[in-house]
Amino acid sequence: MPATIEQAFPSDLYGGRLTIDLDAIVSNWSLLKGKLSDSTDCAAVLKADAYGTGQDKTAAALYQAGCRTFFVAVPTEALTLRASLPGAVIYVLDGLFPGTANHFLTHDIRPVLGSLEELLEWAEVCKASGKNNAAAVHVDTGIHRLGLSPAELTRALDDNAVLGPFQPSLVMSHLACGSTPDHDMNRRQLKLFTETTAPFPHIPRSLANSAGVLLGPDYHFDLVRPGIALYGGLAIETEPNPMKPVAKVEARIMIVRDVPQGDTIGYGAKQTAKRPLRNAVVAAGYADGMIRRAGSTDDRPGGFGLIGGYKAPILGRISMDMITLDVTDVPEHLLQRGAFVEMLGPGVAASDLAAYAETIDYEYLTSLGRRFERIYAPLT
Ligand SMILES: *Cc1c(COP(=O)(O)O)cnc(C)c1O
C-alpha cells in the first residue's frame, strides 16, 4: 500500500511520527478469521479511533478485505463510521443513550441494548413504527458492566407483549478474564452464556473478544468481536503474541549531552547518574501517549527506546513533551540531532512498555496523541 501522509505541515516540523500499517491490520484480521469455522463471522471493533490507528482508514481497509460488521463504543463514533461505510453493519457497544433511538434509525445503526430499560425503550420504538429495527441485546454473564441479567433476558425474550415486533439481531456477552486462559471465570461465563441463549436458537450469538477467539472454538459462536489483536496487541498474556505490529512511534533527537556521575536527570531529581552518562532528549512525552508511569527512578527501571538496534533506557521522569534516554552505549553516528528514535513499534512492543508502565498495551495504542505526523505505510 503506498504511503499516505496525514498532516498539514512539513515533516521536519513534527517532534515525531506515527506510522500505521493498514496491511498489517488486515493481515491480523485474516489470521483471526482463519481460526473460525465457515459459520462464524469475524467482525472488527473500531472503538476509540480504531484503538488509535484512525477509524476511517482502518475501517475502509477492513471493509475492503471483506469485514462487514463493526463495533464502536459510542453513537458519535457510529455516525462518523456510517458516513465512511454506507454498507456496513454497525453496532454501538455502549448501547442506547436515553431518547436517542431516532438517530440510530436515521443512520441505520444498531445499539447493543445493555439493560432492561434500554430494551424496553427500543421495543417501544419498534411497536410505534410496527417494525423490527435491528439491535443486539447484551447479557451479563459475570463481568458486571453492561448487560441484562440472564433472568431478565429470558423473561424479556419470552414475552411478545414486551418485545412487540422486535427480535434481537444478536445476543452477546463479554468475557472478564479472556486474557488469562486458565481462569475459572472463562468456563463459567461460557456455560452461563450457552445455557441462557439455548432457548433462543434463532438469535445469532457472540461471546468472544480477541482473547476469546484465541481461547478456541467453544467460544466462537456465530460472530466474534476482536479489537486489540487486530492492532497487534497482546490478547493472551501467557502466550507469545501471534499478531503483527501495526504502529510505530518515532521521536526526534533534540540534543545529546553528558551527565556527570552523581547528577540527577529530570523532574523530581529521582534518577541519579550512576556513572558518567550520555543522554539524548527526544521530542515525545506523555502528551503524545508515552505514558508517564514508564519513567525510571533510582529504585525502579523504566521503559526504553531503540536507536539503530541499540536499546536506550528511559532516564528519569517522562515529561509532557520530552523523554530523556540513556545513549551511553549507542555509537555516536546514530545520535545526530534530528534523528529518529523508535519509542514504540516492531522493536519496542507496546506490551513490553506497558509492563514498565503498569498498564496494558490497549492504553498505549489508544493514548497516541494527535501531535505526531501520521503516515499510513508498511512498517519496515
Ligand atoms: C472492547 C470490546 C471488545 C474488543 O475487545 P478486545 O479485547 O480489544 O479484543 C469486544 N467486546 C466488547 C463488549 C468490548 O467492549
Task: Give a verbal description of the structure.
Its cofactor is pyridoxal 5'-phosphate. Residues 246-377 form the Alanine racemase C-terminal domain. Its EC number is 5.1.1.1. It is an enzyme of class 5 (isomerase). The chain has 380 residues and is an alpha/beta fold. 27% of the residues lie in helices and 21% in strands. The protein has twelve helices and 20 strands. Strand 7, helix 6 and strand 8 (136-138) form a beta-alpha-beta unit. Helix 3 (55-64) crosses helix 4 (75-84). The protein is elongated, with a radius of gyration of 24 Å. The structure holds pyridoxal-5'-phosphate. The site of pyridoxal-5'-phosphate has 12 residues, from helix 10.
Q: What does the radius of gyration come to? A: 24 Å
Number of helices: 12
How is the biggest beta sheet arranged? 7 strands, mixed
Q: How many structural domains can be distinguished in the coordinates?
A: 2
Strand content: 15-25%
The CATH topology annotation of the largest domain reads as TIM Barrel
Low-confidence stretches: none
Mean pLDDT: 96
User: Helix proportion of residues, in percent?
Assistant: 25-40%
Active site: 47, 267
EC number: 5.1.1.1
Modified residues (N6-(pyridoxal phosphate)lysine): 47
GO molecular function: alanine racemase activity; pyridoxal phosphate binding
